Write the structure tokens for this entry.
Amino acid sequence: MSRAGEPFAGWRVHPLNGGVWWCPGTLVFFGRHSHASTERVIAEKDGWTLREFPHSGGSTRSFRSDRKTDRIIEGRKRRASPPPTNGCAPGLIGSEAEALAVGSRLNIVVGERYHSEMDCPVGQDVECAAAIIREGGVVAFATETVYGLGANALDPTAVARVFEVKGRPRFDPLIVHVNHVDDAHRLTTAFPESAVRLANAFWPGPLTLVLPKAEDVPDLVTAGLSTVAVRVPVHPLARQLISQAGVPIAAPSANPFGEVSPTTAEHVRQQLGDRIDYLLDGGRCAVGVESTVLHVDDGRSTLLRPGGVTQEEIEQVIGPVNLPPAADANDEQPQTAPGMLSRHYAPRTPLRIVERVSDVAMADCTGLLTLQTSDVASRFDAVEVLSPGGDLCEAAANFYAAVRRLDAHGLEGIVATLFPDEGLGRALNDRLRRAARAH
């Protein structure tokens, strides 16, 4: 233990890819966020400074060196939390050796190692994830559609961190996830009869309803609009998380803004693993594309984004729906619903859509994304067949993972063919068109 009276007396480090720092009775979570303009210095020694940034969820403490040769180590302090006993805390940025070296230099005790290869803790500890949500943290979690990046929907500071982690523009609203229809009622001021029928038919499930928002819903969640997007997920871990957190959870997809959505925990780790507080691993997402978003009013409802519940299924319940204009969205204005930007869901590799693969003028380093096997597939450097039998449900479940694999090949371009314009094919075509516009 450090000697009494020293600046860092009472602090310990438990290496987890670097470590988790804590003082008695207080757990500190580490990420890469800085609030230098409002931080106050609370301790200094040997070129290292401990700063604190207060906020509604407690405070953020950053522990970093003034020398460029040392790594920046930062974190979020949780109030009244016990020291970790199960590895449920993000680790420092850096190696165990670095943590030991810093600890030795500052007379800070180094504890036993937690075993993890992740930048953030990953597992199925719902209690831990729920505590993080309640205390203003950010948790990535599995749903039946894609992995979400969740925070307490009623805490503007926590929601702001979701936008920061994802790099999402604040004019793009979030979906609020709840466990029951009654919870959705509390977030809205009106719930039309058509919404009741849709909820009875498809909740829990991959359908988001856009309804007039209640005053308690922060404007940041809704991009300042008078409506809120709500849904009840079906994935058991997502439902347990919402239940144990005791708050609605606002969550976009758990990936950098505009990029390919994640359908496994590994996808999340690769892109956001050093920016989040916990990754709740629920396995592979069964549906594989985002929820359908439907604006519901007393007249005819409008299908804003095709997704996991098909237009045909919706119209069987409430009759015909309107479709949004075919023209590109205004990407500089508040969006009516998530996923409405004209350029979205895009790999780094340029993607273009063709009617027939046989008409493609071949170039080196080109990949093919196709529903079924093509006679000319051998002409491509990499090929992803989404469903040999032409099953659109199977294709949707495989879609984002296949795009990611092609993107990882280092290709110069990806060629994709459109899907049948029916059922889940509409959602897949929507994702392809938005991805193609990004390049």
Observations:
- The chain has eleven helices and 22 strands.
